[in-house]
Amino acid sequence: MVDPVKISPQYEEEEADVKDDVKEPVTVTERRSGTERRLLQDQSALGFFREHPKAGWIMALVVIALLVGSVFIWRYYSVRESTDDAQIDGHINPISPRVSGTVVRVLHDDNELVQAGTLLVEMDPRDYEVAVDRARADLANMQASSTAANVGVPLIQTTSSSQLLAADANVKATEREIESARARLIESQSNYAKVAADLKRMEMLIARDEISHQQYDATVAAYNSAKANVDAASAGVSAAESRAAQAHAQAEAARTVPDQLKVTRARAGAASAEVQRTVSALAQAELNLKYTRIYAPVTGVLSKRNVEPGQVLQAGQPVFSIVDVEDIWTTVNFKETQLKNMQVGQKAKIKVDAYGREYNGTVESIGAATGARFSLLPPENATGNYVKVVQRIPVRIRFDKGQDPNHQLRPGMSVETTVLTQ
Description:
Order of helices and strands: HHHEEEEEHHHEEEEEEEE
Mean pLDDT: 80
Strand content: 15-25%
CATH architecture of the largest domain: Beta Barrel
Largest sheet: 9 strands, antiparallel
Shape: rod-shaped
Oligomer: single chain
CATH superfamily of the largest domain: Efflux pump adaptor protein, beta barrel domain
Distance between the termini: 74 Å
Low-confidence stretches: 1-30
Structural class: alpha+beta
Number of domains: 3
Radius of gyration: 60 Å
């Protein structure tokens, strides 16, 4: 008779599970046979490890390797932030004429790589050449007028000073003439008074026939002469006073020399200003002539050609767009939860979908606001229908130099970007 086998609680639970699964009743003998089989399996497993002691160490090493690999993978991904919401960006420079004109030649087409300073479009320059010649003629005319005005300043100053000195001298001379004329008038008046008295005495004497008629006639003649001398002396005084008044007027006119000199200098200054104006007009005309030739402002690839020979262009009308392929970067829209450890200057890996190649980059700047805030219709959370959405903030990552010598990268290409945050 078989001795009863002591069953462990573990096996009792397993037997209970077996009871639940088995619909038909199981006998005690069957239960014991199952328990014995499991005991034999456990003993065989223990026997395997006893026969192969290295197997236990191998399994331990495998477990340790899995733990170390898990830690390594966790540390690897914990210092990296990745997203595929990114694209290449760059400057797209519109090219427009600065003057109006008729197109003569178009030297390049779309998708051509051109260097900065390359001639792209040439317009008819003849109208602007005529404007330059006219501006040069105006400048020559104004320079001549300015020279004459400036030369007249010292000439007028010298002439006016001489006139002022002459006028002062003339005033003094006329004043002396007045004094002399007045002295002659006084002298003639004295002679006249003496002769008039002599004539009265002669009239009394001739009435008494005490003198001859000859003496009387001589006295009358002397009287008339003295009277004429008085009249002449009086007229001389009036004439001298008139000349003095004229000399004073000339002197007053000469004393306006400083004001006249200021006017002359002002005219000279105005002429010089006109020269500067015509110089500026000439410079503008020469610039307009240069603007008839349109050059590439930067090195890049031409796009969106909108010009043909014979077309009349207006100032500011777009003719080309040029993509600056030497100044490109990546705009990456990271979730706000990914920016915790992100800083300017950290290194990044940029995988371009078009080429399947990775490029190196550096975080250049982090956006000042979320993309939603800059949208045309930003969300308004105060309306009552607030739903929290993880926002994205644009981060600019600059490509390291020297990785794109053939200029294969283009703005708008999709990329996957990973930033090393440590």
